[in-house]
Amino acid sequence: MKMMEALTERTTVIDANQLILGRMSSIVAKRLLKGEKIIIVNAEKAVISGKKGSKVREVKEFLKVGHPWKGPFHPRRPDRIVRRTIRGMLPYKKPKGKAAYKRLRVYIGVPEELQDVEKETLKEAHASKLRCPYFTVAELAREVGWRGEA
Known about the structure:
The chain is of the alpha/beta class. 37% of the residues lie in helices and 13% in strands.
């Protein structure tokens, strides 16, 4: 019931299914900075444009940066990858960015509490606009070490 209480005042539920990760993230970041609370569901179904092999290679190379105990720590779960992408578009070290980041929730799949809630999609970020190869965030996550369901 706690989530239903949180769904009051200006909360938007966005279905990330077939949305381009970068475009969706930039739109969400701007709306978070305006004070909106946003919940993203189906994070694993967001898409990344480009060839899968080269993007996976880039991410695996980036994962080598840092120390295993001291950081920086890199996300491998689809919901955390989406959340981190949005964080990169926020001034998260400043108070307004930190507050905006706290207004964001990202889920793999759709939680039971949000099953009957109306979900919004972002037409300007839909994958049908792409004319190049693309793959899902779940595929990327599995390639870099996520062993989850879905």
